[in-house]
Amino acid sequence: MLLRIDHVGIACRNLDEAIARYETTFGLTVTSREVNPEQGVREAMLQVGDAAGGPTWVQLLEPTGPDTPVGKFIARRGEGLHHVGYAVADITAALASIGATHVRPLDQRPRHGSLGASIAFLHPADLGGVLTELVEPAAS
Ligand code: MC0
Fold this sequence. Notes:
- It is built from three helices and eight strands.
- It is α+β, with helices and mostly antiparallel strands.
């Protein structure tokens, strides 16, 4: 089901400062910046690699307010690794397959994600404490 790691989502208090950290330290560059009101984030995608199977990203996430998933995460745990996103070929089929396991989807239907992707989250309590995201990238 999982094709590769699509991105790692990193919670930060200040998006501009986090971008500068990755640009200065690793020479990464920003491919896109978006606001996703449904998810309560301002985010930036920085491409890490361009492997044969498709690119991999660092996704920097600044909450739009305290009562959002990332806002609550930072208040509880501080800045840091928020989730891992795995690329799948067909997110509807992947969600149906997950439905036959004990793992609880947090989204019954795919939602809008970065770079036009379709995304769905899986509960961290069912996956060893790791918030996990399925990502069907936009057709290129
Ligand atoms: C919360 N918890 C996490 C966690 N966030 N555990 C691991 N990783 C995370 N990221 C844990 C807390 O430590 C706590 O554990 C328990 O979940 C309840 O925490 P809470 O603060 O009361 O939070 P809830 O229950 O209201 O919500 C947690 C949940 C939520 C994961 C269900 O954040 C959610 O639905 N997330 C999915 C959407 C999301 O994260 N969107 C933002 C990224 P204990 O053991 O102390 O009880 S959007 C995104 O990334 C898009 C743009 C994209 O990729 O394209």
